Amino acid sequence: DGGITQSPKYLFRKEGQNVTLSCEQNLNHDAMYWYRQDPGQGLRLIYYSQIVNDFQKGDIAEGYSVSREKKESFPLTVTSAQKNPTAFYLCASSRGQANTEAFFGQGTRLTVV
Amino acid sequence: KQEVTQIPAALSVPEGENLVLNCSFTDSAIYNLQWFRQDPGKGLTSLLLIQSSQREQTSGRLNASLDKSSGRSTLYIAASQPGDSATYLCAVEGGSYIPTFGRGTSLIVHP
Lengths: 113, 111
Hints:
The complex is a heterodimer of chains A (113) and B (111). Chain A is globular. Chain A has strands at residues 4-7, 10-13, 19-25, 31-38, 42-51, 54-57, 64-66, 76-78, 87-94, 103-104, 108-112. Chain A contains no helices and 11 strands. In chain A, 0% of the residues lie in helices and 51% in strands. The chains are: A mainly beta (113), B mainly beta (111). Chain A binds chain B through residues 6, 31, 33, 35, 40-43, 45, 48, 50, 58, 88, 90, 92, 94, 96-107, 109, and chain B through 4, 31-32, 34, 36, 41-46, 49, 51-52, 89, 91, 93, 97-104.
């Protein structure tokens, strides 16, 4: 089955810890995105990558880091510098061209304990 | 910077009603507009994609229209059912090919 897989589904982080969220796609898409969703806030862009080995900051990149070493994978690290990391994180991919659909994973819910 | 607004923020209707959800955007230079459905605690499921050159798209009981010049789209849901209860989000894609989202409309259809 083609699609996007995010793992884990639930993640708990202690204060001061870095955690990494996984996002893998087998759609052969060039572009991948990370969004953060908070209640009543909609989706806000954290980072995006339009090609392997390249990525750009989105609107709320502070406290986050990413890598894009393989076309299929775009992991997101939530660092200890992110002061309010509790949220629902969504990964998406697309062909990165005009008039193509974006597809989403099932999300990772991160909670600080 | 593109801004996307969805009205209403929440909607509660009895089963069988026809519904209209609204989406507006500030920059009309878009490639496409996409409507998504999100169930609680889940990811987004694509419903319809309207290219900038198109006026509408239909899928089953769903019909989405696009008026690019006025920066508006509507999602029409015919004969609503309890299974339609979810949050509906619209996203526009502009020159950087990055989807920009509204905050969504939370829909409850009660029996």
